Amino acid sequence: MKTLIILVAIVVLALILKACTQTDKLAKDSTRPSDDKKPTSMKENDKLIVINNVNQEDAKKALTAFCNIYNKDSFVALPRLVTLSSDSFAVIFPYDTDFATFCFAVNFLKYPIDIKWQSQVTAWVTTKEGDDWITDKSKNKKVMLFLADDDKEYDNVFMTTQDNIGYKLGFAAGEEKQLLQTPKKPYSAPPIQAKSLDGLPFVDIK
Hints:
Elements: H1 2-28, E1 48-52, H2 56-70, E2 80-85, E3 88-92, H3 99-110, E4 120-126, E5 142-146, E6 156-161, E7 166-170, E8 178-179, E9 202-204
Antiparallel strand pairs: 1-3, 1-4, 2-3, 2-9, 4-5, 5-6, 6-7, 7-8
Helix pairs in contact: 1-2, 2-3
């Protein structure tokens, strides 16, 4: 029995290492569709990520790696990096993106590939019916997304609704929307609004 447990552990570890290696390769592959496939009409939305305690070059590198993973076949996400200060940035999505991809971006900016940083990442959005992982208790509400300080799994985000209902949104099958007895953090309103960033310096990432 002990031998079987060890063998299972080795197989699981090998699968994890393989997945990490594949993700690392994807993040470095800058293949994109042709530019004529890019959306041309902006879509109003309130998706906002605020990243603190980082520098611009690392933030650009992280977002580029994220786009390398998700924009290979189509332009799923076209983030805009807006400078708030020398170590604080906002990420918005002028052409919008789906809720799941937005959650993946929040997680990736906390745990980017090949970047060592202690970033503080918090995001806000208004959910809608039909969004992945959104339930009747969380639809059509302003929500805050973040990574927990005690998180050891690295493949999820936590969500708190405006009325302080908490969820853990896991990326593994079967763990997508776990209702918490109490939220990991109480909801707080965003320090800025996505539509208030006009006029600030920005870089578009594709």
